Amino acid sequence: MYGWIWRMLPGNLVTRAFTALVLAGLVAAVLWYVVFPWIEPRISLDPAVVGR
Q1: Does residue 51 belong to any structural domain of this protein?
Q2: CA 42 – CA 2 distance, rounded (Å)
Q3: Is 48 part of a structural domain of the chain?
Q4: Over the chain, what HEC string results?
Q5: Which domain holds residue 8?
Q6: Where would you find the membrane-spanning parts of this chain (predicted)?
Q7: How confident is the model over 22-51, as pLDDT tens digits?
C-alpha cells in the first residue's frame, strides 16, 4: 500500500518526501481534532485502566 501511495505522488524524491510529510500531518490533524474528540465520550477511560 505504501509503495502505491509513493508511486502516485508527483515529482522527484524531495517533492515526494515533502508531500508525504504534509499528508501525514494532515491525517494526524484530522485524527487529533476530529476523530479523537468524537470518539472520546463513547469510550470508557477508567483511571484504573489508564494508570497513574
Answers
A1: no
A2: 31
A3: no
A4: CHHHHHHHCCCCHHHHHHHHHHHHHHHHHHHHHHHHHHHHHHCCCCHHHHCC
A5: 2-42
A6: 13-35
A7: 999 999 999 999 999 999 888 877 666 555
